[in-house]
Prior knowledge:
Two copies of one chain form a homodimer. By secondary structure, chain A is an alpha/beta fold. Chain A is 34% helix and 21% strand.
Amino acid sequence: MDYDMENRKTAVRGAQSIVFKDAPHIISAASVTGSKEAEGPLGKLFDMTNENDLFGAQTWEEAESNMQKEACILALGKAHVGAEKVRYLFGGDLLRQGIATSMGVEALQIPMFGLYGACSTSGEALALAGMSAAAGYGDYMLAVTSSHFGSAEKEFRFPLGYASQRPLSAHWTVTGSGAFLVKAADADSQGKTGGNEKGEGGAVKAEKKEADAELEDQSFSHVRIAGVTVGKIVDYGLKDSQNMGACMAPAAMDTIVQNFADLGRTEEDYDRIITGDLGYVGQSILFDLVRGKGYDIRKRHLDCGMTIFDRETQDTHAGGSGCGCAAVTLASLILPKIESGEWKRVLFVPTGALMSTVSFNEGASVPGIAHGIVLEHDGI
Amino acid sequence: MDYDMENRKTAVRGAQSIVFKDAPHIISAASVTGSKEAEGPLGKLFDMTNENDLFGAQTWEEAESNMQKEACILALGKAHVGAEKVRYLFGGDLLRQGIATSMGVEALQIPMFGLYGACSTSGEALALAGMSAAAGYGDYMLAVTSSHFGSAEKEFRFPLGYASQRPLSAHWTVTGSGAFLVKAADADSQGKTGGNEKGEGGAVKAEKKEADAELEDQSFSHVRIAGVTVGKIVDYGLKDSQNMGACMAPAAMDTIVQNFADLGRTEEDYDRIITGDLGYVGQSILFDLVRGKGYDIRKRHLDCGMTIFDRETQDTHAGGSGCGCAAVTLASLILPKIESGEWKRVLFVPTGALMSTVSFNEGASVPGIAHGIVLEHDGI
Lengths: 380, 380
């Protein structure tokens, strides 16, 4: 094991990675999803689902905000930690100006950093939450991301009412939000220091107390964020926004291979290497690109976009995508397997395609970015 | 002085602030602006301006990207630091899906975190760059933000060709980008450790070398990021997106007063308290709100949006705004005054209005957020 370092400085590894000396833990996670996700292979694992995908709202955007809020409240409730104890929140979504996040987390009244990394945002949020907790900037950090099929189609393609056709290489944006509560290694278990001591957000506090009464302790105690590999923008010049798997695969390869190089590892050091939403098209490109670098990850690879929907019965073409895709798969499927020790070490690599309707219409390419998070079972 | 702390943990102050034990320094900054800004009161202070606001591009979006790239290259060149030595980049802009940033910084090939905090993004980027440097995650961090009048009008209001009228409470989005190179206190002065060692970005490197030849050393050696106060979302229920000063003033008040409370200070501990782009309308609201909390900042307040344009001759109504407004004012006016010691301690508080055309059309309110950065002259 390579985590015994004498001082903070040595936490820096290679060109792009950090290995934490005192690794923070993900102590709880929550997943909130729509109806199609509820009918998929992971349906029974999600904490909350909604039949009409509106979550009590009038618009898709407000629905997405509500999902984020619920995911945060659930994650806090599972660990019996109040919002006022969370030092900083790191959140993002796919919508212009990140409104799903700002409207969603407003009620929590946690000091916040808004992020944009397309579908890689869950990795970006976890990286910054882990970095902040490991640096001693607070006991608890919250990371949250979301996407919504209705709001994403409107934002990037056409409103649902147009019933436009989609090519087979297109993804199906996941309606879902995942939230993750990160705790510093040296956190006061009472959460009395380093928290947001103002004790605001009364409504949230009340909701949380109700949740406390209903929920058993569903927190994790064995999942640590061992390190991160921050991604670069990787541009192979592709311009097809309906084939995002191909646009993102080079970035996924770059971050995975960089992680290996920075930490002196190979695919054999990970039980699973899990990408966000490359889908069927992107996966085969990733395998080829990684093989070109001398590694073979085929036996250990899993893609959240290929896991969340059933290919035969759910007709989602290339697979699921969106900020919520990797987040809810992490919360519902991956973290419990690490907690139980079934998987000892996982490289979680959410992937994002950096484009907008404007950049696409102006003929710009669609570069990708991917952030790598090393998740480990404590007993490793 | 209250900076003598024995361990990292005590860097956490009050509900929302961090005071760095080993404060990182801003060692260089660059400002790139459009033609209207060049004609304004700060015109002569900017590093680079462009007559037709296109910066050699065909579209406003690409022009904005070019500004970001130039600002980064200039900031690196001024300090004679290569892009490959920068560990992480923190950047953002106002456009949907942050394309000005992803297209702008792509060529630098620095591992990057995309941010969105509306016009508060320069504060968000500096906070995270400072936090990462102070935590020992690398020797050099780069923070960059931008806005462009042409791309912002298209994004938030109407394309310029429509020649639509603007109310007097409206702001004028600044065409500009500011970049800031942050150096860790214990950084190897050769930048050999903790850098992005891959040495990619050859083109940038070459450009940088040219810049080196032309430029004298224009780096700062006395400006430190002493601490940060991370902002919460503050929502007074206002819905007028053409009066963003009013929407953002409550957030500015909240962060300023929180900074005083967290650090045990008053307005008298700062030579200047500088908001991002409240403008004339927002400033008077801020004064009232702050007075309601028992402080009087009138003599020490400066607003970048009121500073960058001349009210009498430039007809910008409420003043300048945008991610670039606070950033270029910081780079060109504020940092040199701190470097010279004219100002010993400044609280820099960029302010953002969290909205999109979609949230506005759906009737949502426009909440604000503001991040506080404590900047000090080393000799303090």
